[in-house]
Amino acid sequence: MFVVGAGLSTLETAADPFLSICGPPRYSEIRLNLAQAVQGVGTFVAPLLASRVFFAHTVDTNAGLKNVQWVYLGVACFVALLIILFFLAPFPEITDADQQAVETQIGEHSADPGPFKKQYNLFLGVWSQFCYVGAQVAVAGYFINFAQEAGRSSSEASDLLAVAQGLYAFNRFLASGLMMMKAFKPRYMLAAYLFLCFVFSVAAMNTSGTTSIALFILVFCFESCCFATIFTLALRGLGRHTKRGGSLLVAAISGGTVFPPMMGAVVTNRNAHVALAIPMMGYILAWVFPIYVNFFNKESMDLHRNTDLNVHHPAEKSLELERGSSVTDKPATSTVEHTEQVVP
Predict the structure, then answer these.
(1) From its phi and psi, is residue 111 left (phi > 0), alpha (psi between -120 and 50) or beta?
(2) What is the residue extent of each domain of the chain?
(3) Whether 68 contacts 75, CB under 8 Å
(4) Which residues of the chain have pLDDT under 70?
(5) How many CB atoms lie within 10 A of CB 141?
(6) Are 223 and 102 in contact (CB under 8 A)?
(7) Alpha-carbon gap, residue 273 to 206, rounded angstroms
(8) Regarding the domain delimited by 2-306, which CATH topology (the fold level of the hierarchy) does it fall under?
(9) Is the whole model's pTM more than 0.70, yes or no?
(10) pLDDT (tens digit, 9 = 90+) per residue, 90-129?
(11) DSSP assignment, residue 92?
């Protein structure tokens, strides 16, 4: 498990910042949300697989790990195919100088982000990511306990988790589509979605039965775009500090090791409904960042959102090439004509 965790953390450290910066800056949130939505499909399939393999009534509990060895072997083979794909695919290297040049073209102030210790937008984003991921992992980790407490069997609870994860993935696609519209700015979406996570977690705590499960599933729905949007908004304006900032944001997922044990302790000593207070506090603490970007740093956020950098660049480049070739052809033609006139 340590080797798997180390590999996943390395992959995420490289992949998330790359997706955020490899394209037009105005679409960075959309790119990462779409990628996370595809990942969400896996989180939808996994509980269904677990309910059929791990929690099936026909499983021989005395067989131990033999019940799941083929599942893990299949995952290992798929990862091996991914390794080959990444080895063969040509990925460009993005340097700190490239990122600084992007900020210069966007034209934010003097394009100098200043020293790393003054990147307050990044530090608040890291804090928000830490608290949000902690809450998200806690909610997903104890959903089955919550559903069983509400009267469902372990297999039914696993299926309900699949429904929740499916809605989670669907809403990532939906959020990406909404962000394509000018009115739905990422900073607005983040503030609204985190607030609704808080609202529905409080509602789920204070209800029971099927109603509480439905409200709990709505928490998953509004968690959908939070991770990717926090990540990309926190990277805006960093320039030469972008790679370093990306590594800190990925490290912030360590919040997933802090909140679940606290929630587990409350589940053990009280119940899962009361334990929802732990992720609820995480959503509140994470809301510091959307407050900052909506009231104190909105000019920088909107500057990156409204820029046309790299949006029309390919068309303009091809037009320039066409003009260049036409200019090059004219002297050659006139030279030929002149030669024909001189030759008797």
Answers:
(1) left
(2) 2-306
(3) no
(4) 1-2, 4-10, 12-14, 16, 20, 40, 43-44, 46-68, 96, 98-99, 106-111, 304, 309-344
(5) 17
(6) no
(7) 8
(8) Growth Hormone; Chain: A; (1.20.1250)
(9) yes
(10) 777 777 676 677 777 766 555 677 788 888 999 999 999 9
(11) P
170: helix, strand or coil: helix
Phi, psi of 160 (to 5 degrees): -65, -35
Estimate to the nearest angstrom the gap between the alpha carbon of 216 and the chain centroid.
21
- Give the integer Cα–Cα distance in Å for 282 and 259: 8
pLDDT the model gives residue 199 = 94
Extract the tokens encoding 328. Answer: 């090059």
The pair of three-digit structure tokens given for residue 162, joined into one six-digit string? 């699949």
Q: How far, in Å, are 147, 166, 183, 274 from residue 268 at the CA level?
A: 15, 28, 45, 11
CA-CA distance, 275 to 201, in Å (whole number)? 10
Residue 211 to residue 208: CA distance in whole angstroms:
6
Rounded CA gap, 170 and 168, in Å? 6
Residue 160 burial by CB count (10 A; 0-12/13-18/19+): exposed, middle or buried? buried
Tell me the DSSP string of 93-105.
P--HHHHHHHHHH
Task: Find out whether 290 and 306 touch, Cβ atoms under 8 Å.
Answer: no
Structure tokens given for 156 = 């039914």
H or E stretch including 272? helix 272-275
Dihedral angle, C-alpha 167, 171, 173, 176, nearest 10 °: -170
What the block records as the tokens of 109 is 């102030």
The tokens describing 51, both together, are: 């309910």
Task: Give the DSSP H or E segment for 231.
Answer: helix 226-235
Give DSSP secondary structure letters for 289-314: HHHHHHHTSHHHHHHHHH--TTTSHH
Q: What is the pLDDT of residues 240-274, one digit of tens each?
A: 888 888 888 888 988 988 999 999 999 999 998 99
CA distances from 130 to 12, 46, 125, 150 (A): 15, 24, 8, 29
